[in-house]
Amino acid sequence: MGTDIKYCQNKGKVVLLSIGGATAQLNSDAATFSQQVWDLFMEGSSPYRPFDDAIIDGVDLDFEQTSQMDIIQFTNNMNQFYKTSNRKYYITAAPQCPYPDANLGKLLQQAHIDMAFIQFYNSGWCDNSKYGLPHWPESMNYYMWDEAWHNNSFANPNIKLYVGAMAGTGAGNPGSYVGPDFFAKELKELQATYPDSFGGAMMWDMSWAYAATPNFATNAKQALMAGSKCGNTGGSYYSNRGDAASVNRRRRSS
Asked: What's the pLDDT score for residue 67?
């Protein structure tokens, strides 16, 4: 695995370690767990390194129920570790689409998160499948997240918001699924409508994305790059969550 991670990084890909999941619980305290993550996967020291000498580029937090660990303190601790290094590290989160997210909402408001991979699936009323419907009570609700961004509701005023999608009907609730062409059209329209907050696309997961015809990830990336005012200067962020084709823009601090 370590060799594969370094291969991807040499190709310009960002590799994140996703922590959490639909039913995950962490019983560790934030100080102990953040030190373990730093030592096992980043620039800390440990006799046991799951990925050998490979160093990941950050962590992604996907808590879909209340965590017993203080994830705000964990995030603050990781950001302090990051400041001791010359490497560029990221910390991201994967909230559910209802705003504010029940489990990660306070994290986004109180701790520095670089990117939010918003899950517009498995939530019903705000899924991608509701894109194009009139606002409330059912509509894909990126507009709510963009409004929060403009209202300085996030601790990081430059956070980028990513549109998450199921990349196959078997990746979650089939009612949340939209096909590659529908998703590409949705992304282009959101990219044009919300250029300040919009960051790109995330898929769950790559096994489904690359099995799709057309390729779900490639289709989305082509749509995003065609609409990017920055040209082909952005990278593609990869995590075990999926492919997030990025469009790099910075917000002017208010």
From this structure: 83
